[in-house]
From TrEMBL:
SUPFAM superfamilies: Heme oxygenase-like. Gene3D superfamilies: Heme oxygenase-like. PANTHER family: HEME OXYGENASE (PTHR10720:SF0). Signal peptide: none annotated. It holds the Pfam family Heme_oxygenase. It comes from Streptomyces massasporeus. This is Heme oxygenase (Biliverdin-producing). The lineage of its organism: Bacteria, Bacillati, Actinomycetota, Actinomycetes, Kitasatosporales.
C-alpha cells in the first residue's frame, strides 16, 4: 500500500511543477529581475509565515498537527532579519501584502483554527520546499546580489538547527505517514495540498504582474 507521504508527493506533483516553473521565479532565478523583486517576494513570505507560525502556536498541543510543530523550522525571525537588511529598520511601516498573499495567509489561518489536518498540508508544502528548492533561490541571491553566504538577506533559507536536511525530511515523511484519518480525510488533505500550491502560484503571478520584464 502506498504511504501517505508518497501519495501526497505524487498527487501534487503537477501543482509543484507549476510553482517551480512560474514566470516570476524563472525570471528571478534567471537573473532577469533586480534585488527589488527579491525583496518584495521576501515581504510576501513574511505574511505567509506569520500565518503559519501563529497557527503553530495554536496547534502545539493538537494530537494531529502538534507533532509537526518543530521550532527548528520556524522562519519568521530570519525573515525579519532579512527584511531589515533589504528594506531597513522601518520596513514594517512600508511592507504590504498583495491580495493574493492575503488570501493565502487567510486560508492557512482558517485551517489552523478549524482543521488541523488541513494546516499540515500547508506546513508540508512550505517547509519541505524551503529545505529543498529554496536552497536554489538562496544560492542565486548570493551570487546575483553579493549577499553574504548564508547571511543577511538569505537567512530565511538557512536552517541552522537542522544539520542534516535529508534525515529531517525522512523523519518528516514518517510523521505524514502517521497522520490519523480514513481514506476520505487523506484525500481531503491531498486536495488542500493542491490548493496550497495554487495559492502560492497565485502569489507568484501577482508578483510577476508587479515586476514584468520590459523589452
Amino acid at each position: 500500500m502506498e504511504s501517505f507521504s508518497t501519495l501526497l508527493r505524487t498527487a501534487s506533483r503537477e501543482q509543484h511543477e507549476e510553482a517551480r516553473g512560474s514566470t516570476f521565479i524563472s525570471d528571478l532565478l534567471g537573473h532577469k529581475l533586480g534585488v527589488e523583486a527579491f525583496a518584495r517576494y521576501t515581504e510576501q513570505l513574511w505574511f505567509v509565515y506569520g500565518a503559519l507560525e501563529s497557527g503553530a502556536r495554536q496547534l502545539a498541543a493538537d494530537p494531529v498537527a502538534g507533532p509537526f510543530v518543530q521550532p527548528e523550522l520556524f522562519r519568521l525571525t530570519a525573515l525579519e532579519r532579512d527584511l531589515e537588511f533589504l528594506r531597513g529598520p522601518g520596513r514594517r511601516t512600508t511592507a504590504g501584502a498583495l491580495p493574493a498573499t492575503l488570501e493565502y495567509a487567510e486560508r492557512i489561518a482558517a485551517c489552523a483554527r478549524t482543521w488541523p489536518a488541513g494546516y499540515i498540508a500547508h506546513h508540508y508544502t512550505r517547509y519541505l520546499g524551503d529545505l529543498s528548492g529554496g536552497q536554489i533561490i538562496r544560492d542565486t541571491a548570493e551570487k546575483t546580489w553579493g549577499f553574504p553566504k548564508k547571511g543577511d538577506g538569505v537567512r530565511f533559507y538557512v536552517f541552522e538547527e537542522i544539520p542534516n536536511p535529508a534525515a529531517f525530511k525522512r523523519a518528516y515523511c514518517e510523521l505524514l505517514d502517521a497522520v490519523p484519518g480514513d481514506e476520505l480525510e487523506r484525500q481531503r488533505i491531498v486536495a488542500e495540498c493542491k490548493r496550497a500550491y495554487g495559492l502560492n502560484n497565485a502569489m507568484f503571478e501577482a508578483l510577476g504582474e508587479e515586476f514584468p520584464l520590459t523589452a
